[in-house]
Amino acid sequence: MCGRYVMAADPGDLVALFEVDEVGDLPERSWNVAPTDRAPVVVEPPARDDGPPIRRLEAARWGLVPPWAPDLSGAARAINARSETVAERRTFAPSLATRRAIVPVSGWYEWRKPERTPFLVHAPGDAPIGLAGLYAWWKGPDGAWVLTSTILTAEATGTLADLHDRMPVVLAPELWDTWLDAETEGGQDLVDAVVAAAAEQVPALSLREVSRAVGDVRADGPSLVEPVG
């Protein structure tokens, strides 16, 4: 699973990396993004009025809330979507069809059992990683719209299997455009393709033991990702 992650990249770097056209109101960088926190996502809504699609970097509340939900209370239970069943789930299937996102992270945390030792999973230099995500818009009683998101997970492979039986789906860069394209059919076949490609991304990732302070959702700052020992 993915229950806590780092988003410490400069927004300008994300704009360049993901070829973003427009940027929304983004939160401050965080070294301890927790469920229901706001964090950047890359989305590309369907084009309107025969114009080209606009790729946006927006802030989304982590934990997908479908439009039909009565309130936001279920968000924390929908921070992850299992890739094996996402196309069958009422909560996620509509978003999989046309509202797919890239969730940029600088790494994510996993706790190795049984001693619950925290590790940061990261790319060389803590470079941004694009995770496969979904998004949805939820309209509150006051008429305000809330953008929400979830991260797809799959069976862990390689060195990551020693930490947890699940891992977030790391999108291969060559699939970024396809995943975001609302005109591409979003079904189980697409999910299976990105999951298969994700397994090939794992060997490039590294593990770093970090401080147990990351277990406190109130903790934040660069010190959380510093190696211990």
CATH superfamily grouping? SOS response associated peptidase-like
> What is the CA-CA span between the terminal residues?
25 Å
Question: H/E element string?
Answer: EHEEEEEHEEEEEEHHE
Compute the gyration radius: what is it? 17 Å
What features would you highlight for this structure?
229 residues; alpha+beta; five-stranded mixed beta barrel; 13 strands; globular; DNA-binding; SRAP-like; DNA damage; covalent protein-dna linkage
Note down, in words, how this protein is organized.
The chain has helices at residues 11-18, 93-98, 176-180, 188-199; strands at residues 5-7, 22-23, 30-33, 38-43, 56-62, 80-82, 100-105, 107-112, 117-122, 129-139, 145-155, 166-168, 206-209. It is of the alpha+beta class. The chain has a single domain (5-43, 55-206), classed as SOS response associated peptidase-like (hypothetical protein yedk fold, Alpha-Beta Complex). It is globular, with a radius of gyration of 17 Å. The relative contact order is 0.19.
